[in-house]
Amino acid sequence: MNKKAVFVGFMLAFVGLLLGGCDANEEVASVHGITDENDDKNAAIGYEEDVRQIGITAGNSINGGLAAMCEERIYFANPQSRWRMYSMNHDGSDMVRLNDIPSANINVVDGVIYYVLGSGSSEHEWQEYAGTILKMNTDGSRKQQVFSAERIFFGEQRGHEPGFITELVVIGNQIFYNLYLPNASGVEGSGLFVVQTDGTNNRKLTPYDRIVRNINISDGYIYFQYITGGMLYEELFKMNLDGTSIHTIGESLPDYIISSMLVYGEEIYLIASRWPVIQFLYSLNRKTGDFQQHTDFGLWRKNISNNIVFFITFDLSANFHLYRMNLYGTERQRLSDYAGENIIILGEEIFFFAQETPNTFSEMMLFRMNLDGSNKRRVV
């Protein structure tokens, strides 16, 4: 299989609001658990009380992290420009290009943008940046590599499949990220890692060499999935931020294939199926373990804000349209006639990446609209 196709597949199967500097709100603070009761735990691994900043929400991360907002400036991967990163004012004015490579998982913290290589890369870009965390100032200056899997794990060797990163979450001065290291023995070395924003003290948090995805950080814990069984069955895990006390969650889930996980409040919302049935929306209560099904129609992607689930239907007859509904799966409302790919929520707006026709080579576009679907317009 073409290695870029593999990378795109992972991106499809897997923004930003700052606490303290950029568009802070109580919902993000609650969802990510950067709260007073966690001060001791956060301080123990390097978080400072007065600089508790998070670069991306979990909902935006599982949608590829293709846009972020900070201080009325929006940063986004431009589908009309090979997914290179652009910025613009909140009203859409002063649009400028910031870099020259496809970008994803955009985090903005303390005047710095952190990101990884996105889909649509050239062969040269793939070899150079696939396993690299990059950063630059918000004006595009001072572009640097924070961390390179190539340098750490392979030195100057060539001829191997590059390791690649599909998710990263920046909190304060630390970056949590997943790393996939394909090699002759399988996925040896793959897992969930943390590194300082200056590139130092890189270490692996997960004890097994398995692919990790759907990283959620909430209430001082990391929730994530291991991919096992030929990438069809994905277990749910929880551990402390320092990598200790790892254990499985969801005793009732062994028969389910889980494609998406999002921690919101007391629930973990899952898009899951019993192979080969269409995927539905479920929730797993973090305290009681109660497991409930919320829809009888298929979903592909989702994001949640203000107790509203925004989702793309997983039904060819519905053309992957964007909808919204409440957390119980009722009061469904269609928001778009286009074939959706990624749902990014920035403040009180949805940024929606879509095509005119699903599963075609028609151009990808970026739209924005209010959370109720009003004031919809094309960005690029």
Provide a descriptive summary of the structure in words.
With 380 residues, this protein is mainly β. It has one domain (3-378): Methylamine Dehydrogenase, Chain H, CATH 2.130.10.10. 11% of the residues lie in helices and 42% in strands. It is built from 6 helices and 27 strands. The protein has helices spanning 3-13, 26-32, 39-44, 58-61, 123-129, 149-154, and strands at residues 67-70, 73-78, 84-89, 96-109, 112-117, 132-137, 144-148, 168-171, 174-179, 191-196, 203-204, 211-218, 221-228, 233-240, 247-249, 257-264, 267-273, 280-285, 291-293, 299-305, 308-313, 322-326, 333-334, 339-346, 349-355, 365-370, 377-378. Strand 1 (67-70) and strand 2 (73-78) form a beta hairpin. Mean pLDDT is 82; it is low at 1-21 and 23-52.
Q: What kind of assembly state do the chains in view correspond to?
A: single chain
Instruction: Please state the overall shape, judged from the principal axes of the Cα atoms.
Output: globular
> What structural class do helix, strand and pairing data support?
mainly beta
The neighbouring-strand order within the major sheet is 1-2-3-4-5-6-7
Using only CA atoms, what is the Rg? 19 Å
CATH topology: Methylamine Dehydrogenase, Chain H
CATH class: Mainly Beta
What share of residues is helical? 10-25%
Number of domains: 1
Tell me the total number of β-strands: 27
Largest sheet: 7 strands, antiparallel
| Beta-strand proportion | 35-45%
Low-confidence stretches: 1-21, 23-52
In CATH, the homologous superfamily goes by the name YVTN repeat-like/Quinoprotein amine dehydrogenase
Summed over residues and divided by their number, the pLDDT gives a mean of 82
